[in-house]
Amino acid sequence: MPLPTALNLLRPTTAHCLTCLSTLLLVVASNSAIGNEVLHLNLRTRAEVAPGTNRFREAFETTAWQADQTAIVICDMWNDHYCRNAARRVAEMAPRMNEVLNKARAQGVLIIHSPSGCMNQYEGTPQRKLAQQAPKFKTKLPLQGWCYRDEKQESVLPVKVDQPSDDDGTIRKAVRFFDRQIETLQIKKGDAITDSAEAFYLMQQRGIKNVIIMGVHTNMCVLGRPFGIRQLVYQGKNVVLMRDMTDSMYNPRDEPYVNHYTGNDLVFEHIERFWCPTITSADILGGKPFRFPGDKRQHLVVVMAESEYQTSQTLPAFALKHFGAFFKITCVYANADNRNDLPGIDVLNQADLAIWSIRRRTFPKRQLDVLRNYLADGKPLVALRTTSHAFSLREGQPANDLQQWPEFDQHVLGGNYHDHHPNTAETFVQPLKAAAGHPILDGIALSEFRVFGSLYKNRPLATTAAPLMLGRVAAAEMTEPVAWTHQRPHRGRVFYTSLGHPQSFEVPQFQRLLRNATYWAAGLPSPPLRPRPASLTQTK
């Protein structure tokens, strides 16, 4: 074949060039689209209600991260574990986690698998080599093999961990059960595998500024590993914890003796206070966050907006002690700088049960509507003391952008608060014999006992109210109802008590009353009081 003819055969046609150019442009556009993808995240942190109070509320803000500047680190999602229940929970959340990884990977996020102690299983793989080839970078702070808690930076963790034991108290022999990451989590092209500071070097090489951490265990490896929260925060990365894609090592038989999943919540709150915000898998996938199948807790929301009786101090501790084994607990506090503001009240939309302690507040219509709608949905309410006059001013009218709700006491509580006896008068209360079989009075003797705080004048109650306990002031025969239930037509259970003075929280009968009433309102039997372990009651 003549040379010119051969060259003509090799020379691309115009149509062929246009096809190649179109393909190239599509590839560039595709890569550009991935590089320009943005992750829209809802960050949850903890804001102190007021300086020095040591009381924190949920706070939310949104942020946008460039996907190609973001990495996901999966911590120790092993194929087995020392703790059987931990292994089960890993298997339960792994399918949802894999969905997160697939979606994030497609958006351009770097995926780093970190099953500690298992690197020999991945030796020679492209993903392992990717991490190994990252050049070392000089850091302002030394990289650590394990980042321990610094007491100057972080308080003691809220749950106790003695050893990796099952929730039922049994312990597997201290031998190694795992040898790799759980196979549910797919390792794909472009991912990396490491269990060391290589993760940080790879992030630096790739220009990674943002890190999403998930895996186990939140209060141990997720915090302490060389690729964990403490290390990466120290090195200046923007870090978030995906709180529904993690689990803590905690046995409910240990302090603070709460449900395992409540223990998780306490650890998340700790991290939000001291280390970084949290997000959920819904920020990546949409829909609802993941929930462990074993998490059967109802959601209890405690709303506190009064300063006279310090329930913002007494109620959170009481709720954790008495309800932490069966409920997810969220506390909502009034704004310390604006008495007529309830930041975070929207969480009431997610509540199954509520405890309110509010006094003479007027709120913006949007916030008051959240309170109204909660009750309109037929959900149960436990109300304390000044809540009988929660939404009405003593005198005058609210500001234009605020609203009252003066009918609340009568319509919702079935009460009739109109005054109180002198603060100096001693108050005594006694259960009604006719109500002795009511579950709210279970374990409370029918004898009279003293409480603290003035006696409220509530007579007469609504005909739909059922008194449980009467009170009197010293040297007086006239009694007033101090605890009752109210059944509204086609609505949830309501319990109200005019008790709630700080010193009353030290009275065993009052503690039992409030405890029983909360479980009753939730439609649950009141569980037996758990005795404190002997190790805690013995004098050293």
Describe the structure.
The structure is a single chain. By secondary structure, the chain is an alpha/beta fold. The chain folds into 2 domains: 43-151 and 176-285, Rossmann fold, CATH 3.40.50.850; 298-521, Rossmann fold (3-Layer(aba) Sandwich). The chain has 14 helices and 21 strands. It has a 9-stranded mixed beta sheet with strand order 10-9-11-13-21-20-19-16-17. The chain has a 6-stranded parallel beta sheet with strand order 5-4-3-6-7-8. A two-stranded antiparallel ribbon has the order 1-2. Strand 9 (298-305), helix 10 and strand 10 (327-333) form a beta-alpha-beta unit. It starts with a helix and ends with a helix.
Features:
elongated; nine-stranded mixed beta sheet; Rossmann fold; six-stranded parallel beta sheet; alpha/beta
Set out the fold topology.
Elements: H1 3-10, H2 14-35, E1 38-48, E2 56-66, E3 70-75, H3 84-107, E4 110-114, H4 126-132, E5 192-193, H5 198-206, E6 210-216, H6 221-224, H7 229-234, E7 238-247, H8 260-274, E8 278-279, H9 282-285, E9 298-305, H10 311-323, E10 327-333, E11 353-358, E12 363-364, H11 365-376, E13 381-384, E14 402-403, H12 408-413, E15 419-420, E16 427-431, E17 449-451, E18 456-457, E19 465-473, E20 480-487, E21 493-497, H13 508-521, H14 534-537
Parallel strand pairs: 3-4, 3-6, 4-5, 6-7, 7-8, 9-10, 9-11, 11-13, 13-21
Antiparallel strand pairs: 1-2, 12-14, 15-18, 16-17, 16-19, 19-20, 20-21
